[in-house]
Amino acid sequence: MNTRRLGRTNLIVSELALGTVELGLTYGIPRPGETGPPDEADAARLLNRAVDAGITLIDTARAYGTAEAVIGRALRHRRGEIVLASKFTLLGPGGQLLSGDALRGHFWASLDTSLRALRTDWLDLYQVHAGSDPAILADGVLAELLAQARAAGKIRFAGLSAYGRELPLAGLATNTFDTLQVAYNVLDRRMEERVFPLARQQDVGIVVRSALLKGALTDRADSLPPHLDALRVAAHAFRALAADLPGRPTAVQAALRFCLAHPAISATLIGVRDMAELEEAVAVASAPAIPLDALAALRALSVPDERLLDPGTWGIP
């Protein structure tokens, strides 16, 4: 497994990182007969195999159902081998956006709950699990809380997991965050124009999620509902191009290789729910780079309606 520097954190992480939402929740485009996350024994085997394969960055969140607790039980004995990242939301029990003292109380309760679940005394990276509204940064409370958590030794570095363009740009403007987690894939390259260059200028590490566009870049696209036909068409075009790449990679492998080709990216998250999916993904570590002419053909793909690039608008879990 190749490694990369995670920006100014100076942490050296595997270029493929493990996203764990599928270990704690039902998530993504299901295949026929597929139900829910793996049981805990299978999840533990996946986590340990990922570390054995050289994946060092494990990314989770308080909002990922049971994922933190599953990770804590499975990898407690391997804490020194991994870079552990989690996230906290800004929402209260009723879904309301918190601020001021309510946010302060929620922050510390969420952090302490994550630490207990993950069976660790500290997080290498603690990220704001945000939406797309830059207004969440206006009062400076998040910067204050993250600085206090770092001073207390409960976190080492602070990150922002965001949607869209405006919130990542606003986050970079505050100089609060050591990393950004953003969506990026062969069909969604909106971060390339402004976010990636500015992050590199500030030495902010970039972790990308949605490399498979919630599974739409794989054969799971065949299960998309009719109102997402335009996305299905673009996904089929991608799969046709991927099939002609050197080494005949699978669609998953081609999508990951596309992300790894961008020099601004420190790590690309993979989400898996069984051992076959994990092995398919980690095989990318030894695969050749995509040739420049093929990379240009992939970059020519597009989706006419930008809203289709946000899985939150799809109307599926």
Which strand-content bin applies to the residues?
A: 15-25%
**Secondary structural class:** alpha/beta
Distance between the first and last residues' Cα = 31 Å
The biggest sheet amounts to:
8 strands, parallel, barrel
The CATH superfamily turns out to be: NADP-dependent oxidoreductase domain
Global geometry: globular
Number of strands: 10
CATH architecture: Alpha-Beta Barrel
Individual helix count? 11
The CATH topology corresponds to TIM Barrel
Overall pLDDT level: 95
Spatial strand order of the main sheet: 3-4-5-6-7-8-9-10
Radius of gyration: 19 Å
Residue share in helix:
25-40%
| Structural domains: how many | 1
- CATH class equals Alpha Beta
Instruction: Spell the H/E element sequence.
Output: EEEHHEHEHEHEHEHEHHEHH
Low-confidence stretches: none
Keywords:
317 residues; eight-stranded parallel beta barrel; two-stranded antiparallel sheet; 10 strands; 36% helix
Q: What do you see in this structure?
A:
With 317 residues, the protein is an alpha/beta fold. It has one domain: Alpha-Beta Barrel (TIM Barrel). The chain has eleven helices and ten strands. It has helices spanning 21-24, 40-52, 67-75, 100-118, 141-151, 166-174, 195-202, 229-242, 251-260, 275-282, 292-299; strands spanning 3-5, 12-14, 16-19, 57-59, 83-89, 123-129, 155-161, 179-183, 205-209, 267-271. The strands form two sheets. An eight-stranded parallel barrel has the order 3-4-5-6-7-8-9-10, surrounded by five helices. α2 (40-52) crosses α3 (67-75) and α3 (67-75) runs parallel beside α4 (100-118).
